[in-house]
Amino acid sequence: MSEDEHTDNLATLPQITSHTITSTLTSRYVSQKIYTRIGDILIALNPFEDLDLYSDEVITEYSTHHDVYSLPPHIYSISQDSFNSLRSKGHNQCCVISGESGSGKTETAKLLMRFLSHSCETLVPDLPEQCHQMNPLIEAFGNAKTVMNGNPS
């Protein structure tokens, strides 16, 4: 296994080819490192198992660290970066979550909202409750019938 296969940011690969991308993602997935960056974009591979990556301690680590990009790639780093940009620039932020049916988009959206509600609760005390109230809406979109998924859960 080459050193390139251990990188957590595909943009740093000396050669970016379909082979190096696939090889790196495979190597990281086998090591249960489901998140990989490509610049400021996050790639997530659904492990289809609980990896204990979303504890309150992990939320605290990402929400209190001044440079989240020095931490391992995580949905929380994207959440914190968006939150920081919102606060510093005053512009609305958008996180695009894309993937095939069953790839974990709904769960990722819920994790993002959980992180933001934790990060913002001192600024907006009722935000955690507002985020919690969004879960049925997020679930409804996640359970929508699609061409790929004719029988949603």
Question: How much β-strand is present in the residues?
Answer: 5-15%
SSE pattern: HEEHHHH
Structural class: mainly alpha
Helix content: 40-55%
Distance between the termini: 39 Å
- How would you sum up the global shape? globular
Rg estimate, integer Å: 17 Å
Q: Top keywords for this entry?
A:
single chain, mainly alpha, two-stranded antiparallel ribbon, 5 helices
Structural write-up:
There is one protein chain. α4 runs antiparallel to α5 (127-142). The chain has 153 residues and is mostly helical. It is built from five helices and two strands. A hairpin with a 2-residue loop joins β1 and β2. Helices cover 45% and strands 5% of the residues. The protein has a two-stranded antiparallel ribbon.
List strands and helices in order, with pairings.
Layout: H1 18-30, E1 35-38, E2 41-44, H2 56-64, H3 75-89, H4 105-120, H5 127-142
Antiparallel strand pairs: 1-2
Helix pairs in contact: 3-4, 4-5
Concise synopsis of the structure shown:
The chain has 153 residues and is mainly alpha-helical. The chain contains five helices and two strands.
